[in-house]
UniProtKB/TrEMBL annotation:
Pfam families given in the database record: DUF1349
InterPro entries: ConA-like_dom_sf, DUF1349
Lineage: Bacteria, Bacillati, Actinomycetota, Actinomycetes, Kitasatosporales
UniProt-listed SUPFAM superfamilies: Concanavalin A-like lectins/glucanases
Protein name: DUF1349 domain-containing protein
Signal peptide interval: none
Length: 203
């Protein structure tokens, strides 16, 4: 399936399991099914397949950008999450997650280069938070915000080279790795053709 959101200058296409993606009145909704995730355990065999979860992705225009959304998760089980996701290859991708990890809503990140890493940032009160992915050249940055105005720096990293990073797919993912599924909504969606003014100054 393909969706066109008025906030984004590129169409979105579904990948992986069916996420029942829908868009209405500025809100994108997706569903993760039971035990759906996107992760390659760092302790696992290098040839094992990556697990999968519903993704809705598109190719951002060339150059710098920021993708922003407020993410609300219907947490039911540990590790249920709403995610901003970027993909440059079968084993090169990253997640900025609002996740129940495992008992409290938490900002978490995963960067996969063959295998996935996994790191928690900070706990969030409530079921909603703003997330932001930014790109410049081959570099990506993750930020989160509790009010959509002041941003907390989470991580900066590279994936692939400048050519593959420039062709990255970006968008949305829902997951429920150990649960029976969860619903995720994304609103206040925004695209900016710029890199943030500063990574650590709240801008």
């Amino acid at each position: 399936m393909e969706l066109r959101l008025p906030e984004l200058p590129f169409p979105l296409r579904s990948y992986g399991p069916d996420g029942n993606w829908s868009y209405e009145d500025g809100t994108l909704t997706g569903w993760a099914g039971p035990r759906q995730d996107r992760f390659v355990p760092p302790t696992g065999d290098s040839l094992e397949p990556a697990s999968d979860a519903p993704r809705l992705l598109g190719a951002a225009p060339e150059g710098d950008f920021q993708l922003i959304a407020r993410v609300t998760v219907g947490f039911e089980a540990a590790f249920d999450a709403g995610v901003l996701y970027l993909h440059v290859g079968d084993r090169e991708w990253a997640k900025l997650c609002f996740e129940r990890s495992p008992d409290e809503p938490t900002i978490c990140t995963v960067v996969t280069r063959g295998h996935s890493d996994d790191a928690n940032a900070f706990v969030v009160a409530g079921r909603s938070v703003w997330l932001r992915i930014s790109r410049t050249g081959a570099a990506f940055a993750f930020h989160a915000s509790t009010d959509g105005t002041t941003w907390t720096f989470i991580r900066i990293f590279t994936l692939g080279d400048e050519k593959t990073a420039g062709a990255a797919l970006v968008g949305f993912l829902a997951q429920s790795p150990v649960g029976e599924g969860c619903v995720v909504t994304y609103d206040h969606i925004e695209y900016r053709p710029t890199w943030p003014d500063g990574l650590r100054d709240g801008s």
